[in-house]
Amino acid sequence: MRKAIKLTLQDPNNADYRNLADRLLEIYREACRIQGDQRFSEAGRSEKVATLEDEIFALCGSVRFAVPSELDELAKDHRLLVAEVFRLMMAKQLFTFVTAKAVQQPNGSTKPVAGTNNEAERTLRNPARARDAGRTNKTNNGARRQSILTSVLESLRVYLPTYTLGSVVAELKRWAATGLSSFERLLKKLKLPLRQRAKPILDQILPNPCPSAIPTG
């Protein structure tokens, strides 16, 4: 959707770009409506998804299978976007959130599968605004510290049945006493292996400064 909207903003007079953005939005909204309609059985949802996929095929097919000609940069972007949407449709990856069952969170709550990653972005928005307003994270140490704290606190939000300062502190004390985080406990409960990395992902993004390089005195 974002790529389609970008194309439309770059060339508002192009009817093909506007139609792609408008139809993708309409199809997505219809998918969300079907997901939220509790009257559908699993078979009924699958039938509706097949109809949505037919609409994607009708929207993208003419461009996807057109004979390539000399194109400007925006037209190339349009063709690549159509090919991407078509590929995801053929791989049955566009509407998985419609047929997927609601997911039980570690804290016991149940949530439907989201159709976008907007929730993850909203979760990080307030810490990002606080960082910008406070003009913090001018060093790797500060950035690493806030990244770790934000990750742990927001992850605990879906682990603890009651998310309060007291429950967070009690959970962190339990970690320190047992040496086992609630995240590791969940992995063991689900019998999932701990992924071993040659170098932690945080160290790849924000290298840990060498202690000898930190000024003293």
How would you describe what is shown here?
The chain has 217 residues and is mainly α. It has two domains: 2-100, no CATH class; 117-209, no CATH class. The protein is built from ten helices and two strands, in the order H-H-H-H-H-E-E-H-H-H-H-H. The protein has helices at residues 2-10, 15-36, 42-64, 73-90, 96-99, 118-134, 140-157, 165-178, 182-189, 201-205, and strands spanning 103-104, 110-111. Helix 2 (15-36) packs antiparallel against helix 3 (42-64) and helix 3 runs antiparallel to helix 4. The longest helix is centred in the first third of the chain and has 23 residues, at 42-64. It is globular, with a radius of gyration of 23 Å. It starts with a helix and ends in a 12-residue tail after the last helix.
What Rg is obtained from the alpha carbons, in whole angstroms? 23 Å
> Would you list the SSEs in sequence order as H and E?
HHHHHEEHHHHH
Distance between the termini: 54 Å
In round numbers, the mean pLDDT is 83
Q: If helices are DSSP runs of H or I spanning 4 or more residues, what is the number of helices?
A: 10
**Which percent bin holds the helix content?**
55-70%
Strand order of the largest sheet: 1-2
Unreliable runs? 211-217
β-sheet strand percentage: under 5%
The total number of structural domains is: 2
Largest sheet: 2 strands, antiparallel
Total number of beta strands:
2
Structural class: mainly alpha
